């Protein structure tokens, strides 16, 4: 593989456990390949807002009561403190939400903000629509690259001509580490460089494993 640095765009909703698994793979990829990740938000709440009547009741309740807060806080942090805080805050939030099993509580969000040195009052944006325009714009940027019939995460990587090609996924558990992470990254670049490639998929038979 070329040692020239590659940029990958990664859209996530901090609430999604599958996006969290894939994001930890990308963190690992940054260690083993010359890759820089640009972290961006998308929103399960926005993605599903026009089809709430079609989703199971439990999932609908999650979207209506839990999905807006965390992503709003990340967008507020980005708007007020710069792009560089997004990845750090996502790591702090995801570790608490998923690995530690705390879920998207006010306490978990506040602890994550404190961990990365961000102001505590950013947690208040969980209940505010102040930056929803920016949230929706980031969401639409990502989903516009892959279409409406996917979820989170969305990853965008260079294709054969250098222009970025976006995919949903890869969906993987547990997170590949070391050379396994590198091989999956190399394969992602390979399929991205294949004109007309759209999808490889199989039924999930395992839940996210937060190892």
Q: Mind explaining what this structure looks like?
A:
The structure is a single chain. By secondary structure, this protein is of the alpha+beta class. Helix content is 47%, strand content 11%. It contains eight helices and four strands, in the order βαβααααααββα. The chain has helices at 17-32, 44-48, 57-65, 68-81, 84-99, 106-115, 132-146, 178-192, and strands at residues 6-12, 35-41, 154-158, 164-168. The chain has a four-stranded mixed β-sheet with strand order 2-1-3-4, sandwiched between helices. The radius of gyration is 17 Å and the shape is globular. The relative contact order is 0.19.
Q: What overall geometry do the principal axes of the alpha carbons give? A: globular
Order of helices and strands: EHEHHHHHHEEH
- Largest sheet strand order: 2-1-3-4
Helix coverage percent of residues?
40-55%
Count of helical regions: 8
Extract low-pLDDT stretches: none
Query: For the CA atoms, what is the radius of gyration?
Result: 17 Å
Largest sheet: 4 strands, mixed
Mean pLDDT: 93
Strand content: 5-15%
Distance between the termini: 28 Å
Total number of strands = 4
- Derived from helix and strand composition plus strand pairing, the structural class reads alpha+beta
